[in-house]
């Protein structure tokens, strides 16, 4: 995405007199390009994009972002729209994004409560898998380090 294209998009966002032209422009970009654009926009501009993009389009964009960025942008959406976006994402990508969310704020549970049952079960299974994998990696690293210390002594 070059500077001229970004300026055109921002012009359409700020004018908002012609949603059809904005939608046509957005449809001409690949989700990867839109993910780069998201990083150049402020929260108000992204909010305007959320209003014209479908949840499927937003999910496609989020899948090209790293988990931290996607989780940050997800929290700019309402819980209902955020849950719809998570429903549209690949289960492993959605689980990664949910894994980043702050456990203390119950945000993860709020999104899960808004999701349809089938996707919720798949996400929970993916989150459980991630936790088990991280625990397994931790235990193996601990054993490797402990074994090294014993042999070193």
Mean pLDDT: 78
| Helix count from the secondary structure assignment | 10
The topology string of helices and strands comes to HHHHHHHHHH
Characterize the biggest β-sheet.
Answer: none
Low-confidence stretches: none
Terminal CA distance: 57 Å
In what range is the share of β-strand residues? Answer: under 5%
Overall body shape: elongated
Q: What fraction, in percent, of the residue positions are helical?
A: over 70%
The class by helix and strand makeup works out as: mainly alpha
Description:
The protein has 153 residues and is mostly helical. 78% of the residues lie in helices and 0% in strands. Helix 3 packs across helix 5, helix 7 packs across helix 9 and helix 8 crosses helix 10. It is elongated. The termini are far apart.
Secondary structure layout plus pairing:
Layout lengths: L2 H13 L3 H9 L3 H8 L4 H10 L2 H8 L4 H8 L4 H10 L2 H10 L6 H8 L2 H36 L1
Helix pairs in contact: 3-5, 5-7, 6-8, 7-9, 8-10
Quick structural summary:
This protein is mainly alpha-helical and 153 residues long.
Which features does this protein show?
single chain; 153 residues; mainly alpha; elongated
């Amino acid at each position: 995405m070059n500077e001229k294209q970004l300026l055109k998009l921002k012009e359409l966002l700020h004018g908002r007199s012609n949603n059809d032209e904005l939608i046509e422009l957005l449809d001409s970009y690949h989700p990867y390009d839109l993910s780069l654009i998201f990083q150049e926009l402020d929260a108000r501009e992204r909010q305007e994009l959320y209003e014209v993009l479908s949840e499927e389009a937003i999910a496609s964009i989020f899948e090209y972002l790293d988990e931290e960025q996607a989780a940050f942008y997800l929290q700019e959406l309402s819980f209902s729209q955020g849950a719809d976006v998570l429903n549209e994402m690949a289960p492993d990508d959605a689980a990664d994004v949910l894994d980043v969310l702050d456990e203390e704020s119950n945000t993860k549970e709020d999104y899960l409560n808004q999701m349809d049952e089938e996707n919720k079960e798949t996400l929970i299974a993916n989150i459980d898998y991630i936790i088990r994998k991280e625990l397994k990696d931790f235990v193996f690293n601990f054993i490797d380090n402990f074994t090294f210390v014993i042999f070193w002594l």
